[in-house]
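User: Hey, my collaborator sent me this sequence without any context and asked if I could get a structure. I don't really work with proteins. Can you help?
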Amino acid sequence: MNALLRAIDRTMEFALFAIFLAFSLVGGLQVFNRFVLGLPLSWSEEFQKFGHVWMVFIAIPVAYRKGAHIGMDALLVRLATPLRRSIEFLIEILWLVLAAAIFAYTLRLMEVAKFQDSPGLGWRMDHVYMGMVIGSAYLALVAVRRLVAFFRPEAAEQAP
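Assistant: No problem. I've predicted the 3D structure and written it out in structure-token form, which is a compact way to encode the shape of the chain:
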């Protein structure tokens, strides 16, 4: 099971790298075409916007898994252990609720978006929003893993 979870984690991190590389290359190509060749690309801005959507929604759970999101814990560390653990548990539950909400509402949005095409690339808009679904599903997986680790500290030691 741990090998599968590590493979999923690495796949998401590689997807982040690939998306960032792709829209960086397209951005560089756009600058070159516009200022050197005088022929701006009509689709590059849209490609970069869609890449950002995918990148952000995949990066949220990666950062959450690594504990890289900014936290305000000045008050939290001063609380008694039972109260602090209760608040930490609530935070983990809220991450799971956030993932479920993004997932559910994006699926509803995609029902309408499948009838729309992007103007620059001609892509179906439900494909663009698929990054939000993938990211929220991965966020839910990470939240469940963290909840398991909350009650089983030995599971947290095995996590990457």
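In plain terms: Residues 106 and 133 are 6 Å apart (CA to CA). You can pass these tokens on to your collaborator as they are.
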